[in-house]
From TrEMBL, chain A:
InterPro entries: Hyd_form_HypD (IPR002780), HypD_1 (IPR042243), HypD_2_sf (IPR042244)
Any single Pfam family the record assigns to this protein: HypD
One of the protein's GO biological processes: protein maturation
Claim: Flavoprotein is one of the keywords in the record: no
Lineage start: Bacteria, Pseudomonadati, Pseudomonadota, Alphaproteobacteria, Hyphomicrobiales
Organism annotation: Methylosinus trichosporium (strain ATCC 35070 / NCIMB 11131 / UNIQEM 75 / OB3b)
A GO MF label: carbon monoxide binding
Residues making up the signal peptide according to the UniProt record: none
Family: Belongs to the HypD family.
Record-given protein name: Hydrogenase maturation factor
UniProt keyword list: Iron, Metal-binding
UniProtKB/TrEMBL annotation, chain B:
Family assignment from sequence similarity: Belongs to the HypE family.
Gene3D superfamilies listed in its UniProt record: PurM-like C-terminal domain, PurM-like, N-terminal domain
Protein name: Hydrogenase expression/formation protein HypE
Highest taxon of source: Bacteria
Domain (PurM-like N-terminal) ranges: 49-162
Gene Ontology biological process terms, A to Z: protein maturation
Domain PurM-like C-terminal: 174-326
NCBIfam families: hypE
Source species: Methylosinus trichosporium (strain ATCC 35070 / NCIMB 11131 / UNIQEM 75 / OB3b)
Pfam family, one: AIRS_C
Length: 375, 349
């Protein structure tokens, strides 16, 4: 397949892997966080770790919007959907995320709530147009990648004068989360980041500068193909060996220094920063999420329906928080593979296919057994 | 009423719709069955008009199966729910190495369903069953109120006979056995998805729906008991089938990604939607686990049959107490091929 197969070429990958092994200094450990769930997925699905030397450890970061959404916000969505006049439109990944009291959007749907899975914001707009008597609420989540389509939906709703469309805004900001991870005392020491792919096509490279200048951490922005990831690892190893901390762009075919100006302007026009927002596993992070600006308040489901988020506690045995911070690995959690599996997820890392627990369960858990056998 | 019209007025098959009277057991229902189903399936057993059909069978092991079809949309590139309900059930019989003999068909129809669509489905079933040589000899019709079904649900059952002494079963795979696949994967699932209301995209991919019993017959003739088991990788795709085999036989499996055929258009559609073709449904493919020494000759026999032209050796059964299906990726790494959790859905970003 043109433009795909060339990024999955095993021969090329083995060549890069040999260079990584040759250049990685055997006396030291390299710990890199891939921020995006897309990278985690690619690493697991293509077995990238099998090609890396033992002293390079990939830490799976919190870059999956489903994983970092706190339970209280799922509770809010369920409460919204329970209103008789509301049709809640959601991306399917969210359906199985556990909410308080063992419920979920999927269970709420089975109980009779009008919850519909959509594939894009435009599907939600279409429902609002088709069913003017329903209050259509789009459950908006995601990083800077999915924020522009939500902005587009607001624009369209405005243009079409839709009075029955609103969004429940849960959009979050990538650099704020990366900063929070570096500042937490409970994580592991991370020496560099494989930077977000799709997010960076929107925001460009410049928002990561401070990680190089203030925190002295190299960031290599990489695509989601396995060759992209392994090449980014080589670039990070070289930076570390040379004592550099630069922002480098492996994903030149899609990412520019300044990003997509039109998308950035549109986001700035429609959204503003919240003072603070809770991230699952990371707690409250200042200026890390978006809400609608006052002039678009009519499209804000939180204002329209008076949503007040109550704090909700995850299962205390669930280690999603520590896993999202890189402090623990999925297999370190007592629930992993016992009470918590993709069929019976206790925490968000197991729910989303891009979550680190789900990726480890679905693609990599045999390695753990092989290692145990070997030792 | 005209005495020559014992079943009441003719149906308007072009513009009419199914209503509750068509399921009431009265004249309207008799008319529907005669004009739509008997017309499409036409055979002596149906014409006899009994609530069951009697037939003789040859000696051997009786094999029976039943299956329900609730596909959406009902019509998709390369097929429809009718054809699928014939092929799918025949294939379940064929996977036992058996020759399918007769089928039944049951319909649950939603009030308001267009008669033209029902005719189209019935005719498609009639054609598929005649082409396969497996007549539909008895059936049932129910009509439910609007909103209580999704257009039409079809259930079919089939009986067949397997040669005496041939006992293919999911628990018979042994370490060292070879895994063969009869062709490219994912065609059916991608064809259906391409027509889903909220996911439509242009593609030339046609469903691979087909009755596999003729292919199975030549395989059984060529390799007989060297074939441990056969299975058609329908819902859950190749991944589910391999996991089922590993689970039932208490073994593991090892497959090579580069050996698994995937049509370029299917690979491209899956890429676009963030799906893995290993989990996408097939309706005209089979997986066979066969003793290693018989694998080469069986592969040649499969490739000589029109429905097995794309056959490939994709891996082998291994000893593994955990029952993992492992795959060497095209990229050179290793991974598990796990059961699908929930439905495979396009990713958010």
């Amino acid at each position: 397949m043109k433009h795909v197969d060339e990024y999955r070429d095993g021969e090329l990958a083995r060549g890069i892997a040999r260079r990584i092994t040759a250049e990685a200094q055997p006396e030291r450990d390299y710990r890199f966080m891939e921020f995006c769930g897309g990278h985690t997925h690619a690493i697991s699905r293509y077995g990238v770790e099998d090609l890396l030397p033992e002293n390079i450890r990939m830490i799976h970061g919190p870059g999956c919007p489903v994983c970092v959404l706190p339970m209280g916000r799922i509770d809010d969505a369920i409460k919204l959907a329970a209103r008789p006049e509301v049709t809640l439109c959601t991306y399917a990944d969210l359906m199985r995320v556990p909410a308080s009291g063992g419920t979920s959007l999927m269970k709420a749907k089975a109980d009779g709530a009008d919850i519909r899975m959509v594939y894009s914001t435009l599907d939600a707009i279409a429902i609002a147009e088709k069913e003017p008597d329903r209050e259509v609420v789009f459950f908006a989540i995601g990083f800077e990648t999915t924020t522009p389509p939500t902005a587009l939906a607001i624009r369209l709703a405005q243009k079409k004068r839709l009075r029955n469309f609103s969004i429940f805004c849960n959009h979050v900001i990538t650099p704020a989360a990366m900063q929070a991870i570096l500042e937490t005392n409970e994580g592991v020491a991370i020496e560099g980041f494989v930077g977000p792919a799709h997010v960076s096509t929107v925001i460009g490279m410049s928002p990561y500068r401070r990680f190089a200048t203030d925190y002295h951490k190299p960031v290599v922005i990489a695509g989601f193909e396995p060759l992209d990831v392994i090449q980014a690892v080589l670039m990070l190893v070289r930076q570390i060996n040379e004592g550099r901390s630069d922002i480098e762009n492996q994903y030149r075919r899609a990412v520019t220094e300044t990003g997509n100006g039109r998308a950035i302007d549109e986001m700035a026009e429609i959204f503003e920063l919240r003072e603070s927002f809770e991230w699952r596993g990371l707690g409250e992070i200042p200026r890390s999420a978006l809400r609608l600006r006052e002039k678009y308040a009519q499209f804000d489901a939180e204002q329209r329906f008076g949503v007040v988020t109550s704090p909700a506690r995850d299962n205390p045995a669930c280690e999603c928080g520590a896993i999202l911070r890189g402090a623990k690995r999925p297999q370190d959690c007592k629930l992993f593979g016992t009470a918590c599996t993709p069929e019976t997820p206790m925490g968000s890392c197991m729910v989303s296919s891009e979550g680190s627990c789900a990726a480890h369960w679905a693609y990599g858990r045999f390695r753990q057994l092989e290692r145990r056998k070997a030792s | 009423m005209n005495k020559h019209e014992p079943m009441g007025r003719k149906l308007d098959l072009r513009n009419g719709r199914v209503d509750l009277s068509h399921g009431s057991g009265g004249r309207a229902m008799a008319r529907l069955i005669a004009d739509v189903f008997h017309a499409a399936f036409d055979n002596d057993w149906l014409r006899a008009g009994n609530d069951q059909a009697a037939f003789d069978i040859a000696a051997g092991r009786m094999v029976m199966t039943t299956d329900g079809y609730v596909v959406s949309p009902l019509f998709f590139p390369g097929g429809d729910i009718g054809k699928l309900s014939v092929h799918g059930t025949i294939n379940d019989i064929a996977m036992a190495g058996a020759r399918p003999l007769h089928m039944s068909a049951s319909f649950i129809i939603e009030e308001g369903f267009p008669l033209a669509d029902l005719c189209r489905i019935a005719q498609s079933m009639g054609e598929a069953s005649r082409a396969a040589g497996v007549p539909i000899i008895t059936g049932d019709t129910k009509v439910v109120e609007r909103g209580k079904a999704d257009g039409v649900f079809v259930s079919t059952a089939c009986v067949g006979v397997a040669p005496a002494g041939l006992e293919l079963s999911g628990d018979k795979a042994r370490p060292g056995d070879t895994i063969l696949l009869s062709g490219s994967i994912g065609d059916h699932g991608v064809a259906v998805m391409s027509k889903r209301e909220n996911l439509s995209f242009e593609t030339e991919v046609l469903s691979d729906t087909a009755a596999l019993h003729e292919l199975v017959a030549v395989m059984v003739e060529a390799a007989g008991p060297a074939i441990r088991l056969m299975r058609d990788p329908t819902r859950g795709g190749l991944a589910a089938t391999l996991n089922e085999i590993a689970h039932q036989s208490k073994v593991g499996a090892h497959v090579e990604e580069s050996a698994i055929p995937v049509a370029p258009q299917v690979a491209a559609a899956c890429e676009l939607l963030g799906l893995d073709p290993l989990f996408v449904a097939n309706e005209g493919k089979l997986v066979a686990v066969v003793a290693a020494e018989a694998a080469d000759s069986l592969l040649a026999v499969m490739r000589a049959h029109p429905l097995g032209r794309g056959s490939a050796r994709i891996g082998e059964i291994v000893a593994d107490e955990h029952g993992f299906v492992q795959m060497t990726t095209r990229f050179g790494g290793g991974r598990i091929v796990d059961w699908l959790s929930g439905e495979q859905l396009p990713r958010i970003c």
